[in-house]
């Protein structure tokens, strides 16, 4: 009985070993002939899909990049133009300040000349014997214009 049991266990073990060897061989053959080519095709399909998506993305973003480049060029040109306008306005401001100072000095000189004329007019009026009422009127007029 023990012998039969040992024979049966040996038979089962040999069957199990044979089946596992055969299944290992079948798994290797499956992987070699079916699994690896299938995996390679899947990788190629993934790569093609990624390349296709990358190409589509590039095609869709290319106009945006061109637009951004144009905007950058426009901004650069506008900033140069702005800098030019700022320099011109500073120069204009300096010129206007110079003109204002010159005009102020000329106005002061004209005021002095007008002041000198006041005295001369009174002397002329006195010399020509213009009536006193008119002289006072002219003197008051000159005094009012000074203020």
> Using DSSP, what is the number of strands?
0
The first-to-last residue Cα distance is 147 Å
What is the succession of H and E elements? HH
State the domain count. Answer: 1
Count the DSSP helices: 2
Cα-atom Rg, whole angstroms? 55 Å
- The mean pLDDT is 83
From the spread of the alpha carbons, the general shape counts as rod-shaped
Class by alpha and beta content: mainly alpha
Major β-sheet profile: none
Keywords: Membrane, Transmembrane, Transmembrane helix
Transmembrane segments: 12-33
If you had to describe this structure to a student in words, what would you say it looks like?
With 147 residues, the protein is mainly alpha-helical. The longest helix has 126 residues, at 2-127. Helix 1 packs antiparallel against helix 2. 96% of the residues lie in helices and 0% in strands. It starts with a helix and ends with a helix. The protein is built from 2 helices and no strands. The protein has one domain.
Quick structural overview:
Keywords: Membrane, Transmembrane, Transmembrane helix. The protein is mostly helical.
Considering the chains and any ligands shown, give keywords for the structure:
transmembrane; 96% helix; membrane; transmembrane helix; mainly alpha
Question: SSE layout and pairings?
Answer:
Elements: H1 2-127, H2 132-146
């Amino acid at each position: 009985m023990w012998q039969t049991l040992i024979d049966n266990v040996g038979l089962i073990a040999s069957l199990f070993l044979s089946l596992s060897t055969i299944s290992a061989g079948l798994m290797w053959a499956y992987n070699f002939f079916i699994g690896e080519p299938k995996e390679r095709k899947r990788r190629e399909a993934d790569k093609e899909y990624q390349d296709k998506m990358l190409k589509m993305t590039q095609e869709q973003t290319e106009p945006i990049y061109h637009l951004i480049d144009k905007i950058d060029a426009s901004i650069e040109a506008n900033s140069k133009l702005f800098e030019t306008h700022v320099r011109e306005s500073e120069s204009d401001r300096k010129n206007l300040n110079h003109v204002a100072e010159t005009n102020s000095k000329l106005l002061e000189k004209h005021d002095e000349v007008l002041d000198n004329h006041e005295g001369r007019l009174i002397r002329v009026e006195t010399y020509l014997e213009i009536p006193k009422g008119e002289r006072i009127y002219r003197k008051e007029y000159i005094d009012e214009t000074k203020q």
